[in-house]
Each structure stands twice: as structure tokens, then as C-alpha cells.
Design brief:
There is one protein chain. 42% of the residues lie in helices and 4% in strands. It is built from 18 helices and five strands. The strands form two sheets. A three-stranded antiparallel sheet has the order 1-2-3, with no helix packed on it. A two-stranded antiparallel sheet has the order 4-5. Helix 12 packs across helix 17. The radius of gyration is 24 Å and the shape is globular. The protein starts with a helix and ends with a helix.
């Protein structure tokens, strides 16, 4: 009898375990809808602003592709993902999705048919959004032009190509409810917190990630690396040697040149152009919240930057390169600086960062022309400058503002960035 009891308990545990595993790896399909959603203009306008705040087009519109039709490759440590079509096309997009299906995807990372979405889609942040904002975003997306397009297959390494494993990732990182305002803070601060922590999902780029791609909770907003660019720390920006103020950060966030700091480039450029479409008060709210983030690192601060150290032979070569390639826009007496307010480079964030990565990327890739400001444009020098030239130019600029803290990984970083750009 005792043996039968033990066997029964083991079988019961096995059944429960299998049931739990089955639940972990599968979610029910949500029924399709066939009637198009008819929303009023006010709802669509609100939804457009939510979608801009969430940077949806930044990921779901590939270069040369149709708006929100997907197909943009996202390179991760676990393989390459291609963003999906979120236009209302009924076959290849989300045209048959109900609001319930859309909300489940936004809050839980589960598609309409029940499969798990990879957390490159930042549902861990979108779940903090309000029901009303999610409904408005759904209404807006259902109003854009339907595009028939299916993204290429993902190329994920084993075992991450087995989607149900994401369910265990969710157990670790998918927590929290929609944000509620903090009563001891102003309405503007709370609005900034809501945009930064929710739709804007800023910490997903500006935080270091652990080995399985989750944000390190103890180091949120302490900086990360995205697409080969440094996403700088957002903490302590008012305490830096070259501090930011609200006007400078608002300019940067809205695609303009921030006086004394430069302009958004790389992955941040399209984000800034999205924020520029929001009401101005939202940009100020985001800036106010970010500037209130205090440093949490216990590491000893770096010594203040100083100049005046005798330049090396390579830095002297960089000075000549600067005079030939850069001074017409960034030199002290350059007409372009006066007419278009192009920044001096000595104190820009890219030059003052502890890593040379962003300066190198900007030199190589330039900054695409945009409608935000003509002074934002910079040509790419990757075809005309070799690694030696780039290193000399970067060393010269660093020596102008922070000679006592030279970049020791300059050559290695240039080689790694060049190698990454050459990958298919």
C-alpha cells in the first residue's frame, strides 16, 4: 500500500509537472476579427502619439520598406531577428487581430496565435502602459495602409530558436503593472517617468544586459551597447564634468544640435526624430525625469578631464586631418558654425565619453540628412579615411579635451567596428 501511495504521488507530481511545462510553452489562440476598426480622428491622433513615443516605426520599418511593414534585421547575441509586419494587412500583418490579442502581445509578449514573441520586442516595458494608450495605439495601427509583406525567417542559434524557452525568460523578467503617478512628484515628472519607463523603453538600450539578454536591475540606466554604438549612461547627467541642462537635453531628444554636446546619431537619431513628433511638453517631461536620475555606481569617479598634454606624433597627424576634413564645419572660425550652429567637437559627448566607440562610428558612418536641422548632417568618412587616419583624428580630438585620460582601446575598437560593418 505504501508503495502504491508513493507511485501515486510520483505520478501526480509528474502530471502536474507536465501540465505546468505545457502551460509554460503554449498559450491559447485568440479568435480573429473581420470587421475593420472605425476610430474617430481624436483617437487616431492620440494613437499616433503613443506609437511615436514607443518608437514603433524605428524597428518596424526597414530602410526602403513600407511604413510599419517590418523586415528590419535586429542583430542580437543569440542570432538575427527580423521585425514583423504590424500593418492591418489580414494575411501578413495584424489585420485579423482583436484589441485583446494586441493587448496580450503588448503586455505578455504572446502573439494572436499563441506563440511567444522574442523580448527584442520590449513588452516588458509596454506592459507598464495604460489600457487607454494601448487601445489608442491599436486604433492607429489599424488605420495605416495595409501592406502585404512577410519578413524573412529569423536566424537564431540553438536553443534560442525554440520559442517556448522564452516562457522561462518571462518568469525572470516579466513583472510589474501599469505605472501609477507618484504623489510626491510633479505631473511633468510623472509624465516623463511614464514615457521613459513605459512606451519609450529607454532602459532597454541604456542598461547593461546579462548573459540571457535581461536588463541588470541593479544597473538600469548605467549605459549599454546597441548596434555597435554606446548608449551612454542616463544617470548623473547633471553631475558630469560637462553637465547637461534641460534645454540642451530637449534639443538633443528632438533631433536638434544640443549646444555644447552635439546631436543624436546612430540608433538614437531615429528615436530623436520620433520624439520630435510629440508635443513639446512631452520632450520636456522626458528630460526632467532623466536629469533627475542619480548615479548608483559605487565605482570611484574618473579624474576630471584636462588638456595641455603634449600631443603625440599621431595626434599631430590628426590635427592636419582635422584641418583638411573637419575644420570647414567644426573649426573655431568656420562660417558653417556661425551660419548653421554646427558644434565645436572638443566637449561633445562623443569626445568626452570613456569609450571612443561613438566618435569612431560618427566619423565612419556620418549622420544622415534629416528634416530636423540642416546642421545635423555629416558625411560618412569610412570610404576616405583608413584605420590609421581615424585613429589619428580621434586621438587628436581626445587630446584637445581629455588628454590626461587617453583612450587605450582606440585601435582595437576601430578594428572591431570595421569588422562588424563588413559582416553580411
Amino acid at each position: 500500500m505504501k508503495r502504491k501511495t508513493i507511485i501515486g504521488v510520483v505520478l501526480a507530481i509528474g502530471v502536474v509537472g507536465l501540465g505546468f511545462a505545457f502551460w509554460m510553452m503554449w498559450r491559447p489562440e485568440i479568435a480573429t476579427v473581420s470587421q475593420p476598426l472605425n476610430a474617430d480622428r481624436e483617437t487616431l491622433d492620440r494613437g499616433r502619439r503613443v506609437v511615436e513615443a514607443g518608437d514603433c516605426a524605428v524597428c518596424h520599418t526597414r530602410p526602403g520598406g513600407a511604413y510599419m511593414a517590418g523586415g528590419l534585421p535586429l542583430v542580437t547575441p543569440f542570432g538575427t531577428l527580423f521585425t514583423t509586419n504590424i500593418t492591418p494587412d489580414p494575411e501578413s500583418g495584424i489585420g485579423k487581430w482583436s484589441l485583446d490579442a494586441f493587448e496580450r502581445a503588448m503586455r505578455e509578449g504572446i502573439a494572436r496565435d499563441g506563440h511567444f514573441l522574442y523580448p527584442a520586442f520590449p513588452y516588458v516595458h509596454y506592459r507598464k502602459m495604460s489600457d487607454a494608450d494601448i487601445a489608442d495605439a491599436y486604433a492607429y495601427l489599424m488605420s495605416v495602409d495595409p501592406i502585404t509583406y512577410t519578413a524573412p525567417q529569423n536566424h537564431m542559434v540553438f536553443p534560442m530558436n525554440f520559442r517556448p524557452l522564452v516562457s522561462f525568460w518571462n518568469l525572470l523578467f516579466l513583472h510589474g503593472d501599469p505605472l501609477e503617478p507618484l504623489p510626491n512628484q510633479s505631473a511633468q515628472w510623472n509624465r516623463g517617468r511614464y514615457l521613459v519607463e513605459g512606451a519609450g523603453h529607454c532602459s532597454s538600450c541604456h542598461s547593461p544586459l546579462n548573459l540571457i539578454g535581461g536588463e541588470k536591475s541593479s544597473e538600469r540606466f548605467n549605459g549599454g551597447v546597441v548596434d555597435g554604438w554606446t548608449a551612454p549612461a542616463l544617470r548623473g547627467m547633471t553631475e558630469a564634468q560637462h553637465p547637461w541642462n534641460e534645454a540642451q537635453l530637449v534639443a538633443y531628444l528632438t533631433g536638434e544640435v544640443a549646444e555644447g554636446h552635439g546631436a543624436a546619431a546612430g540608433p538614437m537619431l531615429p528615436v530623436s526624430l520620433s520624439i520630435a513628433q510629440l508635443p513639446t511638453e512631452d520632450a520636456h517631461a522626458i528630460a526632467q525625469y532623466i536629469l533627475d536620475l542619480k548615479k548608483t555606481s559605487s565605482d570611484a569617479p574618473s579624474p576630471p578631464c584636462t588638456s595641455g598634454v603634449k600631443p603625440s606624433a599621431r595626434a599631430l597627424m590628426g590635427a592636419s586631418l582635422f584641418d583638411g576634413a573637419c575644420a570647414s564645419c567644426h573649426g573655431g572660425a568656420a562660417p558653417m558654425r556661425v551660419i548653421e550652429s554646427r558644434p565645436a567637437l572638443a566637449n561633445t559627448s562623443a569626445v568626452m565619453e570613456d569609450s571612443p566607440r561613438n566618435l569612431i562610428q560618427t566619423i565612419l558612418q556620418g549622420i544622415p540628412m534629416s528634416s530636423a536641422a540642416s546642421s545635423h548632417y555629416m558625411p560618412a568618412f569610412a570610404p576616405s579615411l583608413d584605420d590609421t587616419h581615424v585613429a589619428a583624428l580621434a586621438e587628436y580630438l581626445r587630446n584637445q579635451s581629455c588628454a590626461n585620460r587617453p583612450w587605450t582601446d582606440l585601435d582595437k575598437t576601430i578594428k572591431s567596428i570595421r569588422a562588424q560593418e563588413q559582416q553580411p
